[in-house]
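Annotated sample (chain length 382).
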Amino acid sequence: MPEQTILVLGCGMAGVAAARELRRLLPHQRVVVVDRAARASYPPSHAALAVGEVRARSLLRSRARLARRGIEFINAEVHHIDLPKKHVRAEGRELRYDYLVIALGSESAFETIPGLAEAAQGFYSFDGAERLGASLRYFAGGRVLITVPAGPIKWAPAPYEMAMLLEHHFHGRKMRQKVEISICAPDPAPLSELGDEASEMIAGQLAHKGIEFSAASRLASVDAARHVARFDDGSERAFELLISIPPQVAGRIVVEAALVDESGRVRVDPVTLESEADSVFAIGDIAGLRAPDGTLVSPSAELARRMASGAARQIATRISGRAPSGPPDGRARWFVEVGAGAATMLSGDLIREPRRVRASQPSIVWHWAKTATEKFWLYRVW
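Output written by the structure step:
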């Protein structure tokens, strides 16, 4: 059998999991991963990084280490995908592929809301979390406003975890009474997309900690000079610190390749995770994976890993000629920090009926489980 090349674009959690599984299933084929960043971090711990609960150095791993596992890593930015010719251009290099796995993730689009880029802090990226941490060190009090966009976001519990970690952070600095923490989201309740049990758990924790939640609040614009956020119902809120989960959009190269549908995601077959383009798969939050009710799924780290494994198995069966494997496992799990060294676990199946996410009572056990999961990704996967 001639050697075939499987090219993985993006070396985040979904991309690295796909590369590792492809290498395991196809030891004699060429697996290549391309990413513009030389080092990987662990995004579910970025909120803890911002409030100083973890050190920056502990969250970084060199992607060049993948070479030890027989995976080629190319540190370059992808500029173009040529589907008919089956090649990708990355900083002057032409990379040919037989199978393509797109794991580039969605991108934060602060610029889509007027004034947001000038006024808001973010924490989804490693650099953003570090900048937010620097701002918090000099924060003297006032309203911290956290805004959530419409539609699925990366790591759905992130804004609520950030609020609860901030509440504990300000307690530790003995200035909680000087700070008002508010969350504005377009949803009817926190994490309503994950079902009643998860939503009620998070809503109860927010209320217990004195964190305000404003439902049906869609951010329309920000006046950076006046420190005022405006919402589409005409209301305004002043803030001293604005932390925003920006709208999530597909990257330019995926849009230009005509792989994105009206949802802003790559339409994929729910069983194979293959896009409408032959031999092109999409995984992670760039993939338009849908729940039984038709809504887009926001993958957890575990679901991203399962999607990666599912796509890798599909590619392996095609190359080897074995019988095709079944649909990806839709189980997802989130460890959500609630402050004071405790966390809750939310878990369920997001792509099969009945869709129900269970919520565990906050415990130090789940906090240590999250820490162990972080170390697993950083030291066993990357």
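Annotation: The longest strand covers residues 331-339.
Annotation: DSSP finds nine helices and 23 strands in the chain.
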